[in-house]
Amino acid sequence: MFRGKAQNNRRVQLTSRGLVFCSVFYVFYEQYLTIWRDAFLSLGLSLAAVFVATLLLTGFDVFSALIVLLMVTMVVVNLGGLMYWWNITLNAVSLVNLVMVSDVTVHISSHACS
Predict the structure, then answer these.
(1) pTM for the predicted model, two decimal places
(2) What is the spatial order of strands in the sheet that 2-3 belongs to?
């Protein structure tokens, strides 16, 4: 890893993904290098866990598990659209909120489905 000279509290690092500017103003800059991959991975794993857990808890009723999965997917997509409309950037905090909304939606839609 190459570290350049520190000028005005800034430092340039060369990583495998490109240049990273480290300074007091860009402390959490590295999260934006992989945030979309992390978002799709986290939401995909969350949806897979929702399907498996609902399938097991409903006594292998595939139709109910698919309905719950569809509802959770629709709520996450709608919240993503609302984030875009309100100009909320995708970062670690908003990604945690997207994953947590899938948990709340499972509770609501599974009670309505049973």
Answers:
(1) 0.75
(2) 2-3, 10-15, 18-23
